[in-house]
Amino acid sequence: NIAEQINEAVVSTQSTGACLGRNLTVKLGRLVRSLSEKSPTLPPEPTTCCMSGCANCVWIEYAEQIISQFGNCPDSVMKDILKKIDDPSLRAFLEMELMFRLKK
Question: Which of 47, 42, 66 is nearest to 58 (CA)?
Answer without folding.
Answer: 47
